[in-house]
Amino acid sequence: MKKGLDKSVERFYNDLAIDYHLVYQNWNKSIERQATIIDQLIKQHAPQKPENILDCTCGIGTQALGLSEMGYEVHGTDISSASIERAQAEAKKRALPATFQVVDVRQLMSKVSGQFDTIISFDNSLPHLKDQQDLLLAAQHIKAKLSPHGILLGSTRDYDLLLQEKPVSTKPITSINNGIKTITFQLWDWKPDKSYVVNHFTMKELNNEFETTVRKAQYTAFTRSEMSHIFA
Ligand SMILES: C[S@@+](CC[C@H](N)C(=O)[O-])C[C@H]1O[C@@H](n2cnc3c(N)ncnc32)[C@H](O)[C@@H]1O
User: Fold this and answer.
1) How many Cα atoms sit within 13 Å of 43 on the Cβ side?
2) pTM (2 decimals)?
3) Residue to mutate (ligand 1; options 23, 110, 125, 195; most atoms within 8 A of CB)
């Protein structure tokens, strides 16, 4: 078993890869919208136009595909092989040159060659790491892959707020895909140590009934100061 992170995260995303687009009301629009936002962030923060981007938790490619479409040279890595397979298929479908590879973020140094002007990790990926030590290890690998003036951009949930409120569910997201109505939402089971288990529900209306799939994964609620301290 890999240190600090058991196989449950890989299993969760391998299983979810086929349905991951359903966490968005319209995945294609989100791809476009997120690429526009990240492009603006790069222009604001990077000292010069980046030659290449590493998306170190790319999943099925929500950010990597849009940035590749914009003309950036993108390499996407992720711990989930099924997500990487889907990202590769989605890039091929769109005739995009983005490349993808199965890599645990804590093994970037040995598995990914070269350095990158921009590294990204969006949509609450790093909080899958088990504790601060594990996050520190990931940060060391990310820093080693950044070129001298490179920048890291990312996003996580606002855990400072969520730790106060300890919500037990997320709002349902409904969409219609190939004529099938789908609903996704999460139920959260908080633990005493700031971690929580997500019960991720995907419901699809088939033959007048809702078929429900529940998948489980663990997150750690890293606060802003913990993240800032570790990535300083
Ligand atoms: C919430 S998803 C976001 C994926 C993608 N950024 C997006 O927005 O579609 C979190 C991703 O982090 C990946 N992940 C979790 N732990 C990882 C690790 N140790 N190394 C690499 N990827 C990891 C998961 O496999 C999953 O694809």
Assistant:
1) 7
2) 0.96
3) 125
Pocket test for ligand 1, best of 78, 100, 103 (most atoms within 8 A of CB): 78
Q: Please say whether the beta carbons of 153 and 42 come within 8 A.
A: yes
Same domain flag for 131 and 33: yes
- Is the same domain home to 183 and 82? no
Task: Give the distance (Å) from ligand 1 centre to CA of residue 156.
Answer: 11
CB 9 within 8 A of CB 79: yes
Structural domain containing residue 46: 8-157+224-231
Q: Would you tell me the crossing angle of helices 27-45 and 62-69 to the nearest 10 degrees?
A: 70
Query: What whole-number distance in Å separates Cα of residue 199 and Cα of residue 201?
Result: 6
Total domains, the chain: 2
Q: What's residue 121's pLDDT?
A: 98
- Which residues form the pocket of ligand 1, taking CB atoms under 6 Å from any ligand atom? 5, 9, 13, 57-60, 62-63, 78-80, 83, 104-106, 122-125, 128
Q: How far apart are CA 175 and CA 184, in angstroms?
A: 9
Report the chain (232 residues): mean pLDDT per 10 consecutive residues.
65 97 95 98 91 97 98 98 98 98 98 97 97 97 96 97 97 92 97 96 95 96 97 92
